[in-house]
Design goal:
Layout: E1 3-10, H1 12-20, H2 25-35, E2 39-45, E3 52-57, H3 61-73, E4 77-85, H4 88-101
Length: 110
């Protein structure tokens, strides 16, 4: 099943709510992802540009997008970014195919 990396920052209201009442947000993410047909692999808080990272599995991009749209519509997040993850085996297959199609694209010429 395809895996996804979701990076997010919480809204100010969400941060204030979690500071006032600490809570396990993993349960909420598991419930949402399961409702959309997927599975939460793990959820992390982090330092840097994002407040957290979730790794998930979904049967399709449509299923993953439905979960992310629902999360975004909740107003709990200030920013969200989802990246499709590719296994190393898939990457090697892509590399092999790239080697076969190299040269078939002509860049713009002036």
């Amino acid at each position: 099943m395809p895996r996804y990396m979701h990076q997010f920052t919480y809204s100010l209201d969400s941060m204030q709510a979690m500071a006032a009442k600490p809570q396990d947000r993993k349960k909420a993410a598991k419930k949402l992802f399961a409702a959309a047909g997927g599975r939460l692999v793990d959820l992390y808080f982090c330092f840097g540009d994002y407040d957290g990272v979730a790794i998930s599995e979904f049967p399709s991009n449509v299923d993953a997008a439905s979960a992310i749209l629902a999360a975004g519509a909740s107003g709990a997040f200030a920013t969200m970014k989802t990246t499709v993850l590719i296994t190393m085996d898939e990457a090697k297959d892509a590399m092999a195919k790239a080697g076969k199609v190299t040269g078939s694209y002509s860049p713009p010429a002036g």
